[in-house]
Design goal:
Layout: H1 5-11, E1 18-20, E2 24-29, H2 32-39, H3 49-57, E3 61-67, E4 74-78, E5 84-88, H4 96-103
Antiparallel strand pairs: 1-2, 2-3, 3-4, 4-5
Length: about 130
């Protein structure tokens, strides 16, 4: 998808999948650099190289939703089995389904994770922490 220079500057040059409407923007975080760029000021441990490599090796895909109102941005992790988890920049667990409904994001925007052997348990995702913002 070709994007404007302004959009590329906002979303990062390598943000490969973009959805925009009057309520939000969604970008695929395809590189660690994308993640770090969008993760500035957040508590997302996925911005750390070791976490990024671990979860990408497990086939998890990451997206960032940036609402156009005053709400904080949200990171969404999509696991190979289609399970989705989402956290806001201010440390709150977010219902991905409710956010998609509110923002008018079609579920097709979030491609499933890559097939890979998964060793994750069904507990809380450790790629998020309540530490100091980055």
């Amino acid at each position: 998808m070709k994007i404007s220079k302004t959009t590329a500057a906002i979303l990062g040059e390598s943000a490969s999948h973009i959805f925009r409407n009057d309520k939000c923007t969604v970008a695929s975080l395809d590189t660690l650099e994308d993640c770090r760029s969008h993760g500035r000021g957040t508590n997302w441990d996925i911005c750390n190289t070791s976490y990024w490599n671990k979860y990408r090796a497990e086939g998890v895909r990451f997206y960032v939703i940036t609402p156009k109102d005053s709400q904080p941005k949200v990171i969404v992790g999509v696991w190979p089995d289609g399970d989705r988890t989402a956290y806001s920049a201010d440390g709150q667990t977010v219902s991905c389904e409710a956010l998609c409904d509110t923002c008018g994001i079609p579920s097709s925007v979030f491609a499933g994770g890559s097939p890979a052997p998964s060793t994750r348990d069904s507990g809380e995702r450790p790629w998020f922490s309540y530490g100091e913002p980055r």
